[in-house]
Amino acid sequence: MRQYNIAVIVGSLRVESFNRKLAVALTRLAPPEFTFSHIQIGDLPLYNQDDDANQALPVQRMKTEIAAADGLLFVTAEYNRSVPGVLKNAIDHGSRPYGKSVWGGKPAAVIGCSPSAIGTAMAQQHLRNILAFLDVPTMGQPEGFVQAKEGLFDEAGNIGAASRAFLQGWMDRYVAWVKLHAV
Ligand SMILES: Cc1cc2nc3c(=O)[nH]c(=O)nc-3n(C[C@H](O)[C@H](O)[C@H](O)COP(=O)(O)O)c2cc1C
After folding, report:
1. Rounded Cα distance, 105 and 23, in Å
2. What are the CA-CA distances from residue 113 to residues 35, 169, 181 (Å)?
3. What is the pLDDT of residues 97-125, one digit of tens each?
4. For ligand 1, atom 31: residue with the closest CA
5. Are 83 and 127 within 8 A, CB to CB?
6. pTM of the model
7. Contacts (Cβ under 8 Å, ≥6 apart) of 104
8. Which of 11, 36, 125, 133 is least buried, going by the fewest C-beta atoms within 10 A?
9. What span, in angstroms and rounded, lies between the C-alpha atoms of 174 and 34?
């Protein structure tokens, strides 16, 4: 059976990030033919177009990891009604030099959680806009606006009972999306 390696990009550097916990818990809902690589973005320098011909080692590492992935899973926080700068920085790095983007054609989904009821909806919409330009086929439904509240995770870090059916369904759709679009 074909194996699928998914690059997981979390839009938060916080040690206790709810979104990182969500990413880890989500990957546990995937079937065995799916493996997940968590992409480090916290050590990337600030993007500077002057460096396009000489990309820093962490940038080269990230681009190599993305290029090797069959799909992308973005799990992002929302900062001031948009994507956190660290995530945009990583996406910009991966998109350059011009004509050498690593993102295009990789099937993706976006999801995220925040303590507020909107559950990163605006950040996700902004991220969808970026991914559309980068030619990333992004799953439209179901949307994943998750509220980070008591019970979202159980003691073992798995998705809690109240959200498990919804997020299992979300993962099932993501798996089907990747299988449909992976090259
Ligand atoms: C700079 C900043 C801006 C924020 N803006 C938003 C926002 O626009 N919408 C929202 O729901 N939460 C906002 N928050 C709260 C975050 O949702 C909350 O800090 C969350 O825990 C971040 O995700 P993480 O736990 O994965 O780091 C903001 C937090 C910070 C630090």
Report:
1. 22
2. 22, 17, 26
3. 999 999 999 999 999 999 999 999 999 99
4. 79
5. yes
6. 0.98
7. 134, 135, 136
8. 133
9. 11
